[in-house]
Amino acid sequence: MDSALSSAPGTPLVLPRQDSPGLSTSSRMQYRSRPVSIAVDPVSLVISESIAITSAIQKSSRSSNSFVSAILGGSPNIIQLVPPEGPAARRQPRTPTTDVQGDGAADAAANRWGLRGKKGKSMQDNPLISSFGRLRHKLAGVKDIRQFDSVVLLEPFLQIIQAKGTAAPITILALRAIQKFLTYGFIAPGSPRFALAMHSLSAAITHCQFDISDSPQEEVVLLLILNLMEDMLTGPGGDILTDDSVCDMMGRGLTICSRSRFSEVLRRTAEATMVRMCQIIFEDLKHLEVEAGEETEALDKQTSADMDHVKMDPAANGTDVPAVKELEPPSPAEPRDSTSSGKTATSSSETPVNGQAEVGRASTSTADESSASEVDLRPYSLPSIRELFRVLVSFLDPHDRKHPDHMRVMALRIIHVALEVAGPSISKHPALATIAEDQLCSNLFQLVRSDNMAVLQEALIVASTLLSTCRGVLKLQQELYLSYLVACLHPSVEIPREPGIDPSLYAGIPQAPKLVKPPPSQASSGRSTPVPVKDRQKLGMEGGARKPDARQAMVENIGVLARMPTFMVELFVNYDCDEDRADLCEDMIGLLARNALPDSATWSTTSVPPLCLDALLRFIQFIAERLDQPAATEGYPEPEVLKERRRRKKLIIKGANKFNESPKGGLAYLQEKGIIADVKDPECVAKFLKGTSRVNKKALGEFLSKKGNEAILDAFMGQMDFTGKRVDEALRILLETFRLPGESALIERIVSSFSEKYCASSVPEGIADKDAVFILTYGIILLNTDQHNPNFKGRARMTPVDFARNLRGQNGGKDFAPEYLQDIYDAIKSNEIILPDEHDNKQGFDYAWKELLLKTESAGPLIICDTNIYDADMFATAWNPIVSCLFFVFMSATEETVYDRVIAGFNECAQIATKYGNAEALDEIIYRLSYISTLATDAVSNTSLNTEVQVEGKSVMVSELAVKFGQDIRPQFALLVLFRVLTGSEHVVHKSWKYIIRIWLNLFVNSLIPPFFSAEEDRLALPPIPVQSPSQVIDRAAKQSEAGFFSAFTSYISSYAADDPPEPSDEELENTLCTVGWIDACRMGDVFANVAHLPGDSLEALVDSLLEQIPDDNGSAVVITVKTDNIPVSPGQKQRQGSPVYDPALVYMLEFCTVLTLRDEQTVELLGKQVVGALQAILRDASRYHPIVIERATFYLFNLLQASYDFDYIRAPVLLHGVSSFPQDTLVKTSGLVLRGLKLCIEKPCPLRSEIMTSPDFWAILQTLATNPDSAPIVFEILESGVTGTPSAIMADNYEAVLRLLNEFATMAQVGAIAEQKADRKQGRKGRPAKQEKPSENAVVARGIKAINNIYQLTTRIPHLMKQSHLESSEGENDLDQDKASRHGLTQAKAWSAYWLPIFQTLTTQCTNPCREVRHLAFTSLQRTLLSPELTSSDHEEWTAIFGEVLFPLILRLLKPEVFSTDRDGMSETRVQAASLLSKVFLQYLVILSKWDGMLDLWLKIIEIMDRLMNSGQGDSLEEAVPENLKNVLLIMSTNGYLVPPAQNPEREELWNETWKRIDRFLPDLRKELALDEPAPVAGEPPAAEPANEKVEEK
User: Fold this and answer.
1) How do residues 642-653 score in pLDDT, each as one tens digit?
2) What is a biological process (GO) this protein takes part in (predicted)?
3) Which band of pLDDT confidence, cut at 50, 70 and 90, is reported for residue 80?
4) Mean per-residue pLDDT for 982-1009?
5) 1093-1115 pLDDT, tens per residue?
6) Sign, CA torsion 966/967/973/974
7) What does the DSSP 8-state code read for residue 814?
8) Cβ neighbours, 10 Å, residue 366
9) How far from 1344 is each of 320, 1359, 1413, 1461, CA to CA, in Å?
10) Could you give the residue ranges of the DSSP H alpha helices within 736-841?
11) Quick one: how far is CA 1422 from the chain centroid?
C-alpha cells in the first residue's frame, strides 16, 4: 500500500483493491475499513485547501495585501510549532499542548493582525497566514503524502482552529480540510508522528476558539467538530488516542449536549455523536481486557497508578442553565462580548472580548510553553473510561440543580449505550463496578421516582439494562429496585367480580405483595421486611400513586427483565430461597398476574394487561423450553438445600411475626421449630435477633431493655465490634440495630450495657472509665436530638461550647478533650444518627443507602442460574397465580389472539406440571379448563329432545348441549386444550378426574362420544351401553328436494320450547357438526388408551373419582328413554309412574370402574374392594334402579368375583343370594347378563365353580330362568357344562337340583309333539309317507333330548358319588333336620336310593312325554339303566324299589287316558315297550329275587299289571304283546325251577297256585298252551319266601 501511495505529483491517489476470487462481496466491502481513494493529487488537494483558507482570511480582513508566501511558499519560519522527531518525543509528560507559543502568543497575533479585519494593517507577517506558506514550501517535492510529517501537515490548520476570534467560516474551512485529510488517508497510522498529530488535533478541536457572533455559523462549526471527533475516535487512529484526549473530546461533546441555548438539532446530533463514541470506547474495554491477560483484574492492576490523574469536569465548560437575560440579542452598536451577547460558551468569570469565545471545556493541560517532547502519548485505557463513566453518572444526581432534566436524559441515554456494549465488562472491573453499585444505582433508583416521564422512561431503561448486564454484583440493589416496582405497580383494589366467573377460580392471584407492609397510615403488625417500607421511603423507593404512563413504563421495564430466560430463576434462588431477602419471585409473579387482568387498565393504560400477560407467558415458556435440557448442577447450590432454606424462611417469618406481637411466644415458637437451639441460652437468642432483619426494631428495643433480659442484652452487645470506634461511632452502630425505647429506665439499661461493652476490652485513650462513656453517650443522644429534631425550629441549637459545658468534669472528674468533643459535635451535626423507622429526607436516604452497601458484602454475589434444577420448586411456588390469571383472562378475553396465547400458556403449564409431577397444579389447570368448557356440570344435560339427523351418510345427534357448545368459541378452545393437557399427563392427575368424568358423561349421554374404554380392550365383551333414543330421526338428504319457503319458515320457528319435538334448524345442525369436529380434534381415545396403562396409584385416583360421581339418591338421575331393543318393554310403553328410571351415566361409571379394576391382578387387589362395594350397593337396593343398571351391575360383580376370588372381596353365596332375591320379573329382564356372568364363573374347574354350583341360590336362579324362552338356552348351556364337564361339577349337594332342572328341560320338549302329530295327520291325508320334520330341529326339543342324555350320563357319576358320600348312619344324626340327614346321614344302602331312584323317577316321568323322540330316548335310557349290572345292591330293599317306584308307576301312568291321549299312536307302542321292560327286568333279577321273601308279592303285582295292560282296551298291540311277554317269563321261571307244580316242589306250591289263579282270570288258555303241569326234573330247591307285598307297597 505504501508503494502505491508513492506517486508523482498530479497522479491520482488510488488505494489498491485487495480482491479475492470467490469473495466479491467481502472484497467490495473492504473499502469501508480503508481510507477513501481519491482521483486527484493529494499534495495538490492540500495546497488547494490552504489557499482556500488564506483567501477566506483575506476576505474576512477586507485587505488588498497579497498572500504571496502562502501561495508561492516562503522560506521556513524559524518558529516551530512542534519539535522535530526524535527520541525526546517518547519522553513526554501527561499535560499535552501543541501550541508552543502559548495562548498569550495566539492572543497577541489575533490582536495585532485583527483577524476580523482592520483597515490599513498589513497581513504579510500574520503568523497564521505565514504558516500556510511554510507548509506550501515543505510540500514542494513531496511524492507520497502519507510519508509527510503529519504534525507539520496539520500545524497551520490547527492554529486557525485554536486562534481566538477566528471567523466561523474560516474555522469551518479548516475543520473540513482536516476531515478530508483523515478521510482520504493523508494522515494515517503509517504517517510520521501520527500519534502526536492525533493528540494535537484532539487538543485543538477541544479548545477551538472562534467568533460566535453568528449563531447558525457557530452551530455549523460545532457540528463539524462533532463529526471530526467521531471520525478520529472511530477511525484507524482512534485506538492510539491518549486518556487525556479521550476525556477532552468526550468533555467537549458533553458540553455541546448540555447547552440549552443550542438548537435541538445540534444537541441531538451531539448526543448521537457521544453515543457512537461511547460505543467505541466501551467496546475497546473488552479488547483491553484481552490484551491485559487472563488474570482477574489484570487491567485494573496495570492502570491503577494512572487512575487518579485523569479528570474530566464538564461543569467548568458552563453546563449551568443560562440566565434568561443571556437570551436577549445584543445591541448592534456595541461590542458583542460574552456578558451581553449570550453567545458565550463558557460560564467562567473571565469574559472574552470582541465577541470571541472558547466553545469548549477548560484544557487539562497548562498554558505554559512546555515542549511537545513532554507529551505522554500512551493509548487510552481504563482510567479515561472510568472517568467518562463517573462524569456521566454524576449528571444523574437528582439533588444537583445545575443539571437540568434534559441533561439527565442525555446522560442516561449515553450510559444505556455503555451498558449495552460492555455491561458485563463494567461489572468485572472494580473501578467501574464500584461506580455502578453505588452512585449509578443510587441516582437511578431516585430518578425512577421522578414525575418527568422523559427522565422516568430513560431511568427505567438504564436500570433494566444495568440489571440485565451487571446484576451479578447488584444483588441488594436489584432487590431494592424490584421491590419498589412491585410496591408501585401492585394495585390495592380487589379483583372485580365478573358475572359468570366463580371467584374461587382466581383466588390464587395475590391482592398484595407477600412481604410488603401496609402504608404507615394503616395499622400493621410491625413486622419488618428485608427492605422495610420506611427504608424504601428514605430511598425514594416506596410505591405510591403513579400516573398511568409511568405505570406502563414500569411494566415495560419489568418486561425487559422478564425476557431474560434466567431472570425469574435467579430471583427465586437468590431472594426467595434466602432467609434475609424478600420473596421477589413470588411477588413479581403475583404483580404480573394481578396487572394482567383487564381491570388494571383503569389505573394504568390499555397496554399494561397484555404486557404483563406476555411477561407471565414468557416465564412459563422459558421453563417449558428447559424441560428437556440436561440438568446442570456444577457450581450451583443443591435444590434440597434451597428447599430447606425456604422452609426455614417461612418459619422465621412466622416466628418473627409472633415475636413482634409477643416476644416470649415468638421465641418459644422458634425454639419449637428448631430455629433457635435454646431460648434459655442468651447467646442463641442474641445471635438470632442480631442476624435477622425481620424483627420489628421497636419491639426489639423494648424486648432487650426489658427487666430480666439483661443477659440477652449483654449477649446482643457482644455481637458488635466497637474496636477503634469513637463513642459516637459506636453508638451509631448500636442504634442502627433497634430503636431506643421511650422510658428513661429502659434507655438507661441499654446505655449501661453499651458502656460496659465499649470499655470491655480496653478503655480508649481520652476516656476515663465506663462511667464517663455512660454520661458521654447520654450527651450524644441529647445532642443528636437537639441538632435534628424538626420540632425545635425557631430555637437556638446547641453549640460546641454548650455541648462541652454540659459534659464538664464528667470524664473521671476531668473534662473531655476539646478536640474529641469537637469531632463528635461535627459528626453529629453533619450526619444525624438515624434511628430506625425515622426521618424521610436525604439524610435518611443516605443512611439507608449506606446500610444497603454495608450489607452487600455479607449478601454475596448474585448467582446466575442458567440451569433447570430449580424449575420444579419455582413452578410449585408460582403456578397458582399464573393459572388463576390465565383463567380470568381467558374468560374475559374477546380476541382470538389472546385465546391462542393463553391456551399455549395452559399447555405449557401442564407440561411443566407433568414433567415435575406437580399433581396439584395439573389438577387446578384441568379444573379451570373444564369450567370454561361448560361441560363439567354436576347434572347431566337434558336429552329428551335429542334428534338424530342423517347428513351425508353420517348420523348426527342434535342435542341442546351440542348446539350450545357449538355456538361459543371459548369453551371449544378450552375443551381442546384440556385434552391436549390431559393426554400424556394422566399419571399425574389426581383430584381433577371428576371434572373429566363429568365431561365424558355429558358427551356420552348425548351420543357425542362412545364409551372408549369398552373399545380399548374387550375385557367384558358387552354390548354398548344404551343411551338416548332420538325423539325422531330425520334424513336431510331425502328432504332436500322439498326445500322451499314453507320449509324454511318452519325451520326458522322451530325451537326446543315447542310441544312436539321440532326439527333442528340449519344453524343448530351446523353448531352440532362444529361440536362434533371439536370433540374429534380432542382425540379422547388417546386418553383412554393411556388410562389403560396407568400405574396403580394413579388408577386408584381415577376410580375413586368415578365412584364419587355415583349419585347417592337415584331420584336425582336424569330420566331418559332408550331404544326398545335394549329394554324389554313394548315400543310404545311409557315410563310407569313410580318405576325406576334409567341413568346411562351410572352404567357408564360402573362399567368404567369395572374395566379398570379387571386390568390385572394388581389392580384387582388395589381397586376391587371399593368397586365391589359400590356394585353391591346397587344390588342391595335393586328396586330403585332400572333393570339395565341391575343387569350390568350384576355382570360386573360376577366378573369381579372371578378375578378377586382369592382376595375375598365378595362371597359367592352372598352374590347368588342377592341375585336370587330379585323379583321374578326383574330377574327375567336381567337374565341375559346374569347368566353370562354365571357362565363366566363356572366355565373352568376351580374352587369358585364348585362353590357356585353347590349353592341352592344358583339352582334357584337357573330354575327360574329355565322357563324363560330367551334365557333357557344359556341356562341349559350352564347346566350341560356342569354335567359333562371334566371334572364333573355334579356332587351330592347339587345332584337333585341338577336332575330337577334336566327334568324341566326334558318336559319342555313336549312341544315337539305338535310337529310330530301334524306330520302324522299330513301323512294320513295324502295317503303316502311324507317327509317328516324331525322334532330335534326344534331348539326346545333338542335341549330336551340333550337333557335325557345328560340324565343317563349321570348314571356313570353315581358310583363315584356313592363312594364319596361317606354318609353316616341315620342313628347318629338325630339332631339334624330331614334335608341334612338326606344328604349326610344316610347309610350306604340308602345312598343307592338317594342317587339311583331320582334318575329312575326322572326318566320314568319323561317316558310319558308327549314328544316321541324324547319319550323313546327316555325309555331307552331307563331300560339301559334298569338292566345295568351296577344297579343291584346287597340290600334288596333298595334296588327292588325299581318295581314299586319306577316300573309299576310308569305303567300305571301309561294306562291313564289323559296320558294316552297326548299321543295315541305313540303311547300304544310305549305301553308295549313298558310291558316288555317289566318282563325283562324281572327276568334279569329273577335269581336274586328268588332269594327275597317278597318275591311272591312282587310277582303277583306283575301279573296284575299285565292283567291291566291286557284289558286296557286301547289297541291290539297290547293283547298280543302281553301274552307273549308273560309266556316268556313263565317259561323261564319254569325252566329255572321257580314256577313248578307242587308235585315237583311242594315249596313252590303257593307260587304255582297264585300264579295260575291270577293268570287264568285274563288268559285262561295260557296254562294249557304252556303245559307246565307236566313233571320236570327239579333244578334246585329255591329258598322259602315270605310274602313281601306290604313291604313293596310301603316303599
Assistant:
1) 999 999 999 999
2) regulation of ARF protein signal transduction
3) very low
4) 92
5) 999 999 999 999 999 988 875 44
6) negative
7) B
8) 12
9) 123, 25, 9, 21
10) 744-758, 770-788, 800-806, 818-830
11) 79
Spacing of C-alpha 913 from chain mean position: 4
Helix (H, G, I), strand (E, B) or coil at 130: helix
Q: Residue 1591 pLDDT more than 50?
A: no
Helices 770-788, 744-758: axis angle to 10 degrees equals 130
**How far is it, in rounded angstroms, from Cα 1317 to Cα 1319?**
5
Closest by CA position to 184, among listed 146, 225, 137: 146
Rounded to 5°, angle at Cα 1198 from 1194 and 1201: 135
- Whether the per-residue pLDDT at 328 is higher than 80: the answer is no
In angstroms, rounded to a whole number, what is the distance separating the alpha carbons of residues 1068 and 944? 16
At 728, list the grid cell.
Answer: 459516637
CA distance 620 to 421: 29
Q: Is the Cβ–Cβ distance between 1114 and 1140 less than 8 Å? A: yes
d(CA 60, CA 128): 14
CA angle 336, 337, 342 (to 5 degrees): 85
* Residue 730: alpha-carbon gap to chain centroid: 53
CB atoms within 10 A of CB 721: 11
The predicted-structure confidence for 1479-1494, as pLDDT tens digits, reads as follows 888 888 888 888 888 8
Helix axes 1495-1510, 1516-1535, angle to 10 degrees: 160
Residue whose grid cell is 476531668: 814
Mean pLDDT of 1287-1300: 86
Per-residue model confidence (pLDDT) at position 1437: 65
Residue 877: strand, helix, or coil = helix
Residues 489, 594 contacting (CB under 8 angstroms) = no
pLDDT of residue 1016: 55
With 60 as the cut, is the pLDDT of residue 1022 above it? yes
Q: Do residues 561 and 463 make contact, with C-beta atoms less than 8 angstroms apart?
A: no
Mean pLDDT of 1357-1367: 73
- Could you tell me which residues are beta bridge partners of residue 957? 948
pLDDT exceeds 90 at position 352: no
DSSP type of residue 295: S
- Which segments of 490-635 does DSSP mark as H helices, in order? 533-538, 548-562, 567-571, 584-595, 608-625
Q: Cα–Cα distance between 164 and 171 in angstroms, integer?
A: 11
Instruction: Quote the CA–CA distance of 50 and 48 in Å, as a whole number.
Output: 5
Per the DSSP assignment, residues forming a β-bridge with 1032 are 947
Long-range pairs of 687-690 with CB within 8 A, sequence gap ≥ 24:
687/715, 687/719, 689/716, 690/716, 690/719, 690/720, 690/737
> What's the 3-state SS for 350-396?
CCCCCCEEECCCCCCCCCCCCCHHHCCCCCCCHHHHHHHHHHHHHCC
Task: Kindly calculate the radius of gyration of the chain based on its CA atoms and give it in whole angstroms.
Answer: 59
Using pLDDT thresholds of 50, 70 and 90, give the confidence band for residue 1568: confident
The pLDDT, as a whole number, for residue 975 is: 94
Q: What is the pTM of this model?
A: 0.77
Assigned C-alpha cell, 499: 358475572
Residue 170 contacts residue 53 (beta carbons within 8 Å): yes
Distances (CA, A) of 602 to 547, 598, 599, 877, 887: 11, 8, 6, 29, 20
Look-up of cell digits 385434552: 979
Torsion of CA 1179, 1183, 1188, 1190, to 10 degrees: 10
For the chain, the residue count is 1595
Cite the beta strand spans of 157-287 per DSSP E. Answer: 209-211
Residue 1324 pLDDT greater than 80, yes or no: no
Nearest to 1467 by CA among 1400, 1525, 1410: 1410
Higher pLDDT residue, 989 or 531? 989
- Which single residue is written with the C-alpha cell 418486561? 559
Start-to-end Cα distance in the chain: 143
Query: How many distinct helices (H) and strands (E) make up the chain?
Result: 75, 5
Residue 29 binned pLDDT confidence (cut-offs 50, 70, 90): very low
Q: Is the pLDDT of residue 693 over 90?
A: no
